[in-house]
Amino acid sequence: MVIRVSSQFKKAYRALPSMIKAKAKERESIFRNNPFDPQLETHKLHGKYKEYWAFSVTGHYRIMFRFNDNETVDFMNIGTHDIYK
């Protein structure tokens, strides 16, 4: 699976605490093996983000992403629920 990251994702990732960055890398590894692994709590978003999905990094942090095709995913943003505003 190819994961591309948006400039918004890169900017938000750089601002994260080290502990969250480490957890995000761990979750990305799980995501690469199975985007719908129950540990990730992957879910479809609604409203203005209806074309996106999200999965949990921790209880408060999420990665918002979009499936492009069977092999390519775009990570759009990472952060708390504020990323949906």
Provide an overview of this structure.
The structure is a single chain. The protein has 85 residues and is of the alpha+beta class. It has a single domain (2-84), classed as YaeB-like fold (2-Layer Sandwich), CATH 3.30.2310.20. The chain is 28% helix and 28% strand. The chain has two helices and five strands, in the order E-H-H-E-E-E-E. It has helices at 7-14, 18-33, and strands spanning 2-5, 43-44, 53-56, 62-67, 72-79. A five-stranded mixed β-sheet has the order 1-5-4-3-2. Strand 4 and strand 5 form a beta hairpin.
In short, what is this structure?
The chain is α+β, with helices and mostly antiparallel strands and 85 residues long. The protein has a single domain, classed as RelE-like (YaeB-like fold).
N to C succession of SSEs: EHHEEEE
Helix content: 25-40%
Given the helix and strand composition, which structural class is it?
A: alpha+beta
Counted by DSSP, the helix tally is 2
Alpha carbon gap, first and last residue:
28 Å
Strand content: 25-35%
Sheet with the most strands: spatial strand order: 1-5-4-3-2
Low-confidence stretches: none
Give a count of the beta strands, DSSP E runs of length 2 or more.
5
CATH H-level superfamily title: RelE-like
CATH A-level architecture: 2-Layer Sandwich
Instruction: Return the average pLDDT rounded to an integer.
Output: 95
CATH topology: YaeB-like fold
Rg measurement, Å:
12 Å
Shape: globular
